[in-house]
Amino acid sequence: MADLTINVEFSGGMELLFNNERKHKISMPAQIDGRPTKLQDLLLHIRDDIMTEKKDLFVDNDTVRPGILVLINDVDWELCDELEYQLEDKDEIVFISTLHGG
User: How does pLDDT run across 27-74, given as a tens digit for each residue?
Assistant: First the structure.
């Protein structure tokens, strides 16, 4: 099967964990171990291969830390099966930190 192209964006301060780059185009295989690629696969790829520092501020116990809003194609991930969401080509995944200093 062909690869998927996933558009990923980080905002609300999250971009600081990615060399101040807000937008990324990420290529993922359409299947991993014979099953469709899921959002959790993308999270682990981002954590292990793209993040530049402080990985614990993004992922905790293989899921997104509390305080980070995740949107899948402009829809809250809680309405899309969260980590079990099966990625599709050209999906847009946005991570927004809701925690700010003050």
Answer: 999 999 999 999 999 999 999 998 877 888 888 888 999 999 999 999
7-24 as b/e: b if 16+ CB within 10 A = ebbbebebbebbeeeeee
| Placement of tokens 């780059």 in the chain | 21
Give me the DSSP letters along 38-98: BHHHHHHHIIIII--S-GGGTEETTEEPTTEEEEETTEEGGGTTGGGPBP-TT-EEEEEE-
What residues contact 54, with CB distance under 8 A and at least 6 apart?
17
Q: Which amino acid is at 99?
A: L
Predicted model pTM: 0.92
Q: Which two tokens stand for residue 61?
A: 């116990």
Q: What is the pLDDT of residues 79-93, one digit of tens each?
A: 999 999 999 999 999
